[in-house]
Design brief:
The protein is mainly α. The protein has helices at 2-19, 24-39, 53-63, 76-97, 103-126, 129-134, 138-167, 171-203, 207-240, 242-245, 253-267, 272-283, 306-320, 327-335, 345-362, 366-376, 384-396, 401-404; strands at residues 67-68, 71-72. Helix 2 runs antiparallel to helix 3 (53-63), helix 11 (253-267) packs antiparallel against helix 12 (272-283) and helix 12 packs across helix 15 (345-362).
Length: 413
C-alpha cells in the first residue's frame, strides 16, 4: 500500500511539474488549509480514527472542487494529489521531528483516499458529464452523497488494512471498528469537505475559513472527550494497583491480564466499546480480594475452589459499582467465576486470561504448561473458543513480553 501511495505521489508531482500548476491561488489556499490541519492534529494515538480532521476535510473538498467563485476549475486528479501530498508533508514535518508517528501510514491512507475521490469526480465534472446529466439539483447532491459513501468505505478499508499490517490483529473486527467510527468524526469530515467544495464554488475561497471553524470546534470537543477517557482509564488503572500495593496480587498482574484480554477480545471480534469494558473489567477483576480477611496465596484465584472464586468475584463487583465506572464493567467482574456456559463473552475472556497468568506464574512449565492446563480444562472450566483465541494471540506474540512467558512458539491449536 505504501508503494502504491508513493507511485501515485511521484506520478502526480511529475505531471504537475510537466504541465504547470493550474489555478495557483486556489491550490495555495487549499494547501495552506491542509497543512494547518496537519499541524493542528494530535500525536499518534492508536485509538484515534482521524488524527487530522481539518486536513482530511480540506483534501476532500479540493478533490470535489469543480468551480471557485462561479469560475470552473481545471486542476484535475493528479494536481489534486500533488497539492495534498505537498501540503501534508509540510504539515507533518514538526510531528516527525518530535517523533510523533505513524505518519507514513497516515499519509499513505490520505493519498490513496483523495486520489480515489478525485478520480471519481474530476474527469466527469471537467468533461461536463455531471452537469449535463444531473444538473445542479437533487440528482447532483445524491451523486455527491454516493461518492462520499464510496470514499468513506475506501478509507475504512485502507485504515483497517494498515492497522492489520501494523498490529497483526484480525481484519474483520478492525474493519467493523473503522466503519463504526464513520458515524463519529468521519461523518463530520465528509460533511465539512462537501460543504467546503460547494461553498467555494459559489462564494470563492472566502468559504474555506468560514466552514473550517465548525470542524475545528468539533475537533476540540473530541480532544476533550479523549482527555476524559484517558483520565478515566488512568483512574481505573490506579484503582487496579491497589491489590498489588496491598500485597494481594503479584506486581503487574492486572496490567498483563488487561493487555492480553484486550488482544483476545480483538481476536474474537469485540467492538471498540466492548473492548473498553473488557479492559476495565480485566484491570479490576481482582479488586474483590481487598475485602478478604486472609489474602489468597500469591493472589492466584484460579487455583481456589469454584465457590470461593465466585464469592471474591461478587465482592469485586460490589466494589466496582461504587467507583462510578459503567455498570457493564461490574457485571463482567461479578460473573468472571460463573460456569462459562452462563457467562457473557467478556467474562469468559477475563476468566481464561486470569487463569493463564495465575497458572503461568506457578507452573514449572511456565506459559506452555499453563496453556496446556487451560486446554485440558476447556470442556469443564474454560470456553474452548476463548482458549484457542488466547493460543493464537500468544503464538503471534501480540501480548506483552511479561504475559507471554515463552509462548511465541505455541501453535494456535
Amino acid at each position: 500500500m505504501h508503494a502504491a501511495a508513493v507511485l501515485l505521489a511521484l506520478t502526480a508531482f511529475g505531471a504537475t511539474l510537466w504541465t504547470g500548476l493550474r489555478e495557483p491561488g486556489t491550490a495555495l489556499a487549499f494547501g495552506v488549509l491542509i497543512a494547518c490541519g496537519e499541524l493542528a492534529r494530535r500525536g499518534a494515538d492508536a485509538e484515534e480514527r482521524e488524527p487530522a480532521p481539518l486536513a482530511a476535510a480540506g483534501a476532500l473538498a479540493y478533490a470535489l472542487l469543480g468551480e471557485s467563485g462561479g469560475e470552473p476549475t481545471t486542476h484535475g486528479v493528479l494536481q489534486t494529489v500533488a497539492v495534498v501530498v505537498a501540503a501534508g508533508l509540510a504539515g507533518i514535518v514538526p510531528h516527525v521531528a518530535r517523533g510523533r508517528g505513524p505518519v507514513l501510514d497516515h499519509l499513505a491512507r490520505r493519498i490513496l483516499t483523495v486520489g480515489f475521490a478525485a478520480l471519481c469526480f474530476q474527469p466527469l465534472y471537467n468533461a461536463g458529464a455531471l452537469t449535463a446529466h444531473l444538473g445542479q439539483g437533487a440528482s447532483y447532491a445524491l451523486f455527491l452523497l454516493l461518492l462520499l459513501l464510496l470514499t468513506a468505505l475506501c478509507d475504512a478499508v485502507l485504515a483497517a488494512l494498515l492497522h492489520r499490517a501494523r498490529t497483526g490483529h484480525p481484519y474483520g473486527p478492525l474493519l467493523r471498528e473503522e466503519l463504526h467510527a464513520l458515524l463519529g468524526i468521519g461523518s463530520a469530515v465528509c460533511a465539512t469537505g462537501t460543504v467546503m467544495a460547494l461553498g467555494t464554488a459559489v462564494a470563492g475561497l472566502w468559504a474555506l475559513p468560514v466552514f473550517a471553524v465548525p470542524l475545528l470546534l468539533t475537533q476540540v470537543s473530541f480532544r476533550r472527550y479523549a482527555a476524559v477517557r484517558t483520565t478515566s482509564r488512568q483512574t481505573i488503572a490506579s484503582l487496579a494497583r491497589a491489590t498489588e500495593i496491598a500485597g494481594c496480587t503479584p506486581p503487574g498482574h492486572a496490567r498483563r491480564v488487561a493487555a492480553l484480554s484486550r488482544a483476545v477480545g480483538r481476536e474474537m471480534g469485540l467492538s471498540g466499546p466492548e473492548l473498553t469494558v473488557l479492559e476495565y473489567a480485566a484491570l479490576m477483576h481482582d479488586i474483590g480480594q481487598l475485602s478478604l480477611v486472609d489474602p489468597v496465596d500469591g493472589g492466584a484465584t484460579a487455583l481456589l475452589p469454584a465457590e470461593e472464586q465466585r464469592r471474591i468475584a461478587l465482592l469485586g463487583g460490589a466494589v466496582v459499582r461504587q467507583t462510578g465506572v459503567p455498570a457493564a464493567v461490574a457485571v463482567v467482574v461479578e460473573r468472571q467465576a460463573d460456569p462459562y456456559r452462563e457467562q457473557p463473552l467478556p467474562a469468559r475472556i477475563v476468566r481464561v486470561v486470569n487463569a493463564y497468568d495465575d497458572l503461568a506464574a506457578g507452573s514449572a512449565g511456565g506459559g506452555l504448561g499453563a496453556l496446556e492446563r487451560l486446554r485440558l480444562g476447556a470442556a469443564r472450566d474454560y470456553h474452548p473458543d476463548v482458549v484457542e483465541s488466547l493460543a493464537r494471540v500468544l503464538a503471534r506474540g501480540a501480548a506483552t513480553p511479561a504475559a507471554t512467558r515463552g509462548i511465541a512458539s505455541v501453535p494456535p491449536g
